[in-house]
Write a structure and sequence with these properties.
Blueprint (H helix, E strand, L loop, with lengths): L10 H4 L4 H8 L3 H17 L10 H5 L8 H32 L1 H9 L4 H16 L1 H8 L6 H11 L3 H23 L7
Length: 190
């Protein structure tokens, strides 16, 4: 009797298409729009390889329409997004803590084709190791750099949930402020 070989599918084929969620964020409106931004920010912290900068789009295009001055709407979106990403990061942190205790998971990641742990340690965890939680916040403040790898890699190294949440919140807020400062609020990519 023959056994069929194992077929490995790319992660993108296993997960639903989240491009529609990014589009929903771009068109977010009102209080429901803020909830969509929070959910999106939560998900990009641990599973979605999508840009977090897209949360600025509803204010830039005027679709958010909360009735506040633009600067206040930006502030609200930045805080909501930061809180969502911090919550998602704590969830990822918990998964990382569990993975740390699970030798087979870490061995699988170290032996994987892309060696995720080694790559992430060289890029973002180097900052975290040198500067601690401030390093994590700095790594997360870099626009267009995927958060998920930094968050998981750092989660395996550290243990303090509260400091981790604060660092990811600060990094998320920092990233959006850096994006606005570097590219202006008329950022075309969004």
């Amino acid at each position: 009797m023959s056994v069929d070989p194992v077929v490995w599918l790319p992660l993108s084929e296993l997960l639903p298409d989240f491009a529609g969620l990014a589009e929903a964020v771009r068109n977010a409106s009102g209080i429901i729009g803020l909830a969509i931004i929070a959910v999106y920010s939560f998900l990009i912290a641990f599973v979605l390889p999508l840009p977090s900068e897209v949360v600025l789009a509803p204010v830039r295009t005027g679709t958010l329409a909360l009735g506040f001055p633009t600067y206040l709407e930006y502030a609200i979106v930045i805080v909501v997004s930061g809180a969502g990403k911090a919550a998602g990061s704590v969830f990822a942190f918990h998964i990382g803590q569990e993975a740390k205790e699970s030798g087979p998971v870490v061995r699988f990641l170290r032996n994987s084709r892309f060696n995720i742990i080694e790559w992430s340690e060289k890029k973002s965890v180097e900052l975290a190791r040198q500067y601690g939680y401030v390093g994590l916040a700095m790594a997360l403040s870099v626009p267009f750099f995927p958060d998920t790898i930094s968050i998981y890699a750092f989660a395996v190294l550290e243990r303090d949930y509260k400091k981790f949440a604060l660092a990811t919140f600060a990094g998320s807020v920092g990233r959006l402020l850096v994006t606005m400062g570097a590219f202006g609020v008329a950022f075309v990519f969004l």
